[in-house]
Amino acid sequence: MAGRRGSAKRIACAETGRLDEATALLDHVVAGYERTLGPDHPETLMARADQAFAYERTGRAEEATALLEGAVAGRTVGPDHPGTMDVCFALAGIYGRTGRRAEAIALLERVADAAERTRGLDDPDTFATRVFLAVQYGKAWRLGKLSTVLTRMTLGAARARVGKRRARMHGRRSRG
């Protein structure tokens, strides 16, 4: 549970602009998670993504990129693993923000496909990934791809809405 308290503190530091303190905390948390949970554990991978984001925010984008590229290259759990998807999403974000749009798009396409396969088209994380992919397509003027992604997002949102409606209707029938 110490990791959870550390997580809350590092987020609070980052949100209040105390990025140097947040970065130091993240360095400590990542090292501890790697030692106790292993490098492929979802908590370790999320902490690594947080660490890279903090590095980027403190002007260390090259270090952030190297951290995440190393984490992706060292994966033993596969592309559909939630931690792998989280790290790839974070890396795509850095690529997009640093002008490496083609690399961001390639990663986001892989993450979006993996998220849809494992979490479903109507999952919020799948939707968020597709939103960011749509933004990158728009910035790259890849309008045909943008249209396709927006269609997939609309389909996912419609499925989620129908699923909620069915659940409510089923609940009413079972009470009646």
Structure characteristics:
single chain, 176 residues, disordered N terminus
Describe what this molecule looks like in 3D:
This protein is mainly α and 176 residues long. Helices cover 82% and strands 0% of the residues. The protein contains 8 helices and no strands. It has helices spanning 2-15, 19-36, 42-57, 61-73, 82-97, 101-119, 124-139, 143-175.
Rg from alpha-carbon coordinates: 18 Å
The ordered string of helix (H) and strand (E) elements is HHHHHHHH
Please report the total strand number as a whole number: 0
Strand content: under 5%
Task: Give the overall average pLDDT.
Answer: 75
Shape: globular
| N-to-C span | 44 Å
Low-confidence stretches: 1-6
Individual helix count:
8
Derived structural class: mainly alpha
Main pleated sheet: none
Query: What percent of residues adopt helix (DSSP H or I)?
Result: over 70%
